[in-house]
Amino acid sequence: MNVNRRHLLTGTIGAAAVAMVASACASEDGGDGSGSGKKVGIAMPTKTSERWILDGDNLKKSFEEEGYEVTLQYANDEPDEQVSQIETMVGQNVDVLVIAAIDNKSLSGVLAQAKEQDITVIAYDRLILDTPDVDYYASFDNTKVGTLQGTYIVEALDLANQAGPFNLELFAGALTDNNTKYFFQGAWEVLQPYVDEGKLVIPSGQTELEQIATENWDGAVAQERMDNILSNFYQGGNQVQAVLSPYDGISRGIIASLEGNGYTTLPVVTGQDAEVESVKYIIDGKQSMTVYKDTRELAATTVDMVVAVLDGNEPEVNDDSTYDNGVKVVPAYLLEPVSVDVNNYQEVVVDSGYIDAEDLA
Ligand code: GAL
Question: Could you tell me which of 60, 62, 95, 328 has the fewest CB atoms within 10 Å of its CB?
């Protein structure tokens, strides 16, 4: 039996219904064995971020319920380590590789080996570039993540009605991650008109992706950059009113810097991933918002893709034009991200079962 989890989990059903369906799926699907005897290798980037631990756990559980034998590896954000982990998986004759790449351009060699063995390759959350040997892409609408972040800043500062000028600083993710530019472009498209109009100003003048990127998505790197910005461009009582941050770990680094520099009222700070620590910050009024991406849905989508391919069927995709990896347009299934702040976190991330209420206490 192949329950198509994606159809059950997405659409217009509410968060609570998603949770109910998700748990129903878990028991209904349990061990039907359609993947019996097949092997899947899962390569995740790092355990330093909570989301990848959830992704790995969800994928492992879902594949095992389908009867697959699973190898799950994390590579400490080291591209070479990830390549060698994938080489080992290829050597183990896996049938499928599910990869969240650390460096989107470092995998061509190992994926060529995989293709020689007819291994199906799914780019998970992050697109793999410069190779013909990636079959499908499962992710979220990455541009929309940025749109939600930019829109939150515009609405929080009421830029439609206020003249400002408000001080804004920009942060982006790792340049080795293909998602980085989509997140930033989505946000910048919303923010730039207000910068052009003079309602938003960027005292650091740093607006190029290369200037605002954060190596390894590392919060400590972002904290240091924010420290530098504050000491170089915010002397004499000038305050930051908004910070575009692409990811919760970076947001917490930025907030640490602001607090360390004496801010008692914090600016608008965006985020992504609905990590427990950041949802706590949202409840405490330190971080303004996050973008929730249900990693349970992403895992379910990925498993559906794999089951279809290995059954000799075409997996369902909903985007066959956006994600050109430099060699081909990779057919993708993109899920919807959701903007979360203090007003809807309970419904969206707690009632859906994504975060336990007691973890937020
Ligand atoms: C991105 C991912 C984000 C965030 C970030 C840092 O690729 O899409 O959700 O997790 O990596 O881990």
Answer: 328
Atom 5, ligand 1: which residue's CA is nearest? 247
Residue 102 pLDDT greater than 90, yes or no: yes
List the chain domain ranges: 5-134+294-336, 142-292
Q: Report in angstroms the alpha-carbon separations of 188 from 165, 194, 249, 307.
A: 17, 10, 20, 38
Kindly give the distance from the C-alpha atom of residue 247 to the centroid of ligand 1, in angstroms, as a whole number: 7
- Tell me: the pLDDT tens digits for 165-190? 999 999 999 999 999 999 999 999 99
pLDDT at 15: 37
Q: According to the model, what pLDDT value does residue 32 have?
A: 53
- The helices-and-strands tally (H runs, E runs) of the chain is 13, 12
For residue 235, the CA-to-ligand 1 centroid distance in Å is: 33
> What CA–CA distance (Å, rounded) separates 63 from 293?
20
Query: What are the strands of the beta sheet with 136-140, ordered from one edge?
Result: 69-74, 39-44, 96-99, 120-124, 136-140, 332-335
Count of C-beta atoms within a 10 Å radius of residue 244: 27
Give the pLDDT confidence of 236-271 residue by residue, as tens digits: 889 999 999 999 999 999 999 999 999 999 999 999
Residue 15 has, within 13 A of its CA and on its CB side, a CA count of 18
pLDDT value for 237: 85
8-state DSSP, 359: G
User: Whose C-alpha lies nearest to ligand 1, atom 1?
Assistant: 179
Across the chain, what does the average pLDDT equal?
Answer: 91
The span from the CA of 32 to the CA of 314, in Å, is 21
Mutate to test the pocket of ligand 1, among 52, 125, 126, 148 (most ligand atoms within 8 A of CB): 125
pTM tops 0.85: yes
- Any ligand 1 atom below 6 A from CB of 179: yes
Ligand 1 atom with least separation from CA of 126: 7
Class assignment of domain 5-134+294-336?
A: alpha beta
Verify whether ligand 1 is closer than 6 Å to residue 50 (CB atom): no
Q: 142-292: CATH homologous superfamily?
A: Response regulator (3.40.50.2300)
